[in-house]
Amino acid sequence: MRANLAQIHQRNLIAQSIVKGGKHVVDPMAIATCHATLLTQKEVMNQIEPMKSSIKAMTMGKGSFADWVRLSSAYNVAMAIEHFGVVRGYSGALEDLKQVLDAIGLRAGGELNIWKSPTLYANEIKVLRMQASDYKFQISQLSYGEYTKAYDYAVRKVRSGQGEVFKVGELQ
């Protein structure tokens, strides 16, 4: 998830830095535009496609710990989006998702070194698939600033609960 956030962050950096005469000049209008415009379709899909791959792997019984972390990360960001009130109305679905992710994690061993992908129940598959469409809708309604605020809040919330924050790319 961090790699996809880096792509979104790069857009912000490009907007901030304009080189004039060998010096970087901050363009406040570019920063404001970046934070006020919605994420592009490509940025949204950069978040959704890895998530769909993880769901597919999980439903086929080939899900890895990294897949579970990716889905859990999306859940945490979705909860942060719900918390900030940008897109509301998903708290019930997110609670179902939390129960499913917890159950999968328990059955699989819950740790990188002992992970064994469990067979998913039909209701778990349904909840995971709904997560992808709900999350896509949620993040498509956000600006870059709102997304990074939700992402940062999710990371802080996990760390404050003594949870571990992973860079998914480093798990594979």
Task: Explain what the structure shows.
By secondary structure, this protein is mostly helical. The protein has helices at 2-16, 28-36, 41-59, 65-84, 91-108, 122-140, 144-160, 168-171; strands at residues 17-20, 23-26. It has a two-stranded antiparallel sheet. A hairpin with a 2-residue loop joins strand 1 (17-20) and strand 2. The radius of gyration is 17 Å and the shape is globular. The protein starts with a helix and ends with a helix.
Give the count of structural domains.
1
Gap from first CA to last CA: 12 Å
Strand neighbour order, sheet with most strands:
1-2
Determine the number of helices (DSSP H or I, runs of at least 4 residues): 8
Portion in strands: under 5%
Q: How many strands, what sense, and barrel or not for the largest sheet?
A: 2 strands, antiparallel
Number of strands: 2
Low-confidence stretches: none
Task: State Rg.
Answer: 17 Å
H-E order: HEEHHHHHHH
Q: Report the structural category.
A: mainly alpha
Q: What's the helical proportion of residues?
A: over 70%
User: What is the approximate shape?
Assistant: globular
Instruction: Give the averaged pLDDT, no decimals.
Output: 82
Question: Which labels suit this protein?
Answer:
about 170 residues; mainly alpha; two-stranded antiparallel sheet; 8 helices; globular
Brief characterization of the structure:
This protein has 172 residues and is mainly alpha-helical. It has 8 helices and 2 strands; from the N terminus they run αββααααααα.
Q: Can you lay out the helices and strands and say which pair or pack?
A:
Elements: H1 2-16, E1 17-20, E2 23-26, H2 28-36, H3 41-59, H4 65-84, H5 91-108, H6 122-140, H7 144-160, H8 168-171
Antiparallel strand pairs: 1-2
Helix pairs in contact: 1-2, 3-4, 3-6, 4-5, 4-6, 4-7, 5-6
